[in-house]
Design a protein that fits this description.
The protein is mainly β. The chain is 0% helix and 46% strand. A 3-stranded antiparallel sheet has the order 1-2-3, with no helix packed on it. The radius of gyration is 11 Å and the shape is flat. The two termini are 17 Å apart.
C-alpha cells in the first residue's frame, strides 16, 4: 500500500471539506458528518 501525503479525498458529490480552527470538518449537505484534529493526520 502506498502512503499518500497531504491529500484528503471526499468522493461524495454533496460533501465538502472545511477547516475549523485546528480541526478539519467534512460537511454532508450542510450537516457536520466527520471531524478530525489536524495534528492527528
Amino acid at each position: 500500500m502506498r502512503k499518500l501525503l497531504n491529500v484528503l479525498y471526499v468522493t461524495s458529490p454533496q460533501s465538502c471539506i472545511k477547516r475549523d480552527g485546528e480541526n478539519i470538518v467534512i460537511l454532508n449537505e450542510q450537516t457536520e458528518t466527520f471531524f478530525i484534529m489536524i495534528f492527528s493526520i
